[in-house]
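Hi R.,

Here's the input for the 5'-O-[(L-methionyl)-sulphamoyl]adenosine complex you asked about:
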Amino acid sequence: MNDDYFYLTTPIYYVNDRPHIGHAYTSVACDVLARFKRLSGCTVKFLTGTDEHGQKVEKSAKSVGMTPQALADANSQHFRDLTRLMNISNDDFIRTTEPRHVRSAQALWKKMEEGGYITLGSYSGWYSVRDEAYYQESELVNGKAPTGADVEWVEEPSYFFRLSAFQKKLLKFYAEHPDFVGPESRYNEVKSFVGGGLKDLSISRTTFSWGIPVPGNEKHVMYVWLDALANYLSALGYPDKTADYERFWPADLHMVGKDILRFHAVYWPAFLMAAGLPLPKRIFAHGWWTIEGEKMSKSLGNAIAPQALVDEFGLDQTRWFLMREVPFGNDGNFSRENMINRINSELANNIGNLVQRTLSMIQKNCEGKLPEYQYSVAENDLFSGIQPLVDLGQSRTQGYMHNFMDNQQIHLMLEEIIAAASRANAYIDAQAPWALKKTDIARMNTVLYALAEAIRKISIVLQCAIPDSAAKILDFLAVPMDKRSFAHLSPEFTLSSGTLLPPPQPVFPRFMEKAA
Ligand code: MSP
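And here is the predicted structure with 5'-O-[(L-methionyl)-sulphamoyl]adenosine in place:
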């Protein structure tokens, strides 16, 4: 295992729609993981992009009187804008209409064909354009897909992928790789689906043309899911053995929503096996957001645009809420009230208050300079209380916090940060430096220094979740830009007494509802 490189991907987003918070959620979660890995010292490749082919996009384009390409261009740009809006640190943005992708998807098809796993036949059965998925008659519920989407009857010549030949191989692979899919309950669903038997899969369409031509038979376009999944390889330059391919394949993590797990945990590994390629190391399926208790949908018109949240609450506040509100992997509900409560209790009252109290006391009582210190038992207790954060400086891969992130328990990692801030707040209350000011200046100095150092540690870790705000705090502590990674949590990088600090400003204002 090479711990130096880490490749992670978001799903590529369909361009029939505009970005909403469901999309922002997947991307922010990946961003937190990517930043965490970079702070740990890994070389990260973080890929996102747009899924532009298929009947769904063709149909949407028709309904608004645009060509599919024009619709794809416009909406792909909206998803690119989303990465900037949400401060997503992706290293690449792939579009499935790009020549680099078309070439790669066709190369993958040819490899699967050479393996003897693709045959020409004809398909007749149910298809859902919304889900871009085939359904068995037995799966339908009241004439609809199990997802509630409409289905239509399709009869056409089609290439088939011999998915049935992979049932045993997949089950063996799952048994040998207990961490391949998370959370575990979702992995069990995948295993029982495959255990129930696999039918061959139709992988081409002839009744519309918005897709990648099948190599050697241009009457067919590739099934959009085969096309789309190939993006994870095309961004590495596949089939060329590029330096990126050598470093980053197989992917360390494909992050997906629970609705698209089957495509990633069953079809994708089977396609890769057929092409003789290594399989990704892990796939994690996160839950879905509802809005004030209701499903988010176009027809209800209740989808929340990420821009609206950022405008009203702030970027880091939005990122924080999305990552903190729900244990990662579970479904969640967006409610305005919960958002305000979380911003105020965790960012404003807890972290913000800690930073503000400490830095303004240093400004006022220490001429704006980090004071001298002499630790006693109370300081040792404070630092041992935030040990999980400090430990991140010890190893690039091992330890409590790394385990959380390797299992995508983002909420547990963030909980440790909050717990550390709470401990520092309890310490400031117990030590009462405002009282020491009158009785014991040396102790006051020690307490303020210890608090500044605790805040430095907290902010270094916080950078993965709310990078702008964490950077602001580190600026207030005059921490040099090149001393902000997890390696700098080690004792030799502690703050230097005597350093002049810039005047602080509040980082997390309390959110107040405007009076009606
Ligand atoms: N194009 C496919 C993915 C191809 S990957 C090779 C697709 N696109 S999508 O735009 O419909 O969805 C992209 C991601 O957004 C999925 O992971 C999906 O789960 C996520 N979400 C869409 N709505 C969501 C919520 N309401 N809540 C949380 N995530 C949601 O599927």
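One thing worth noting: The first strand starts at residue 5 and ends at 9.

Cheers,
M.
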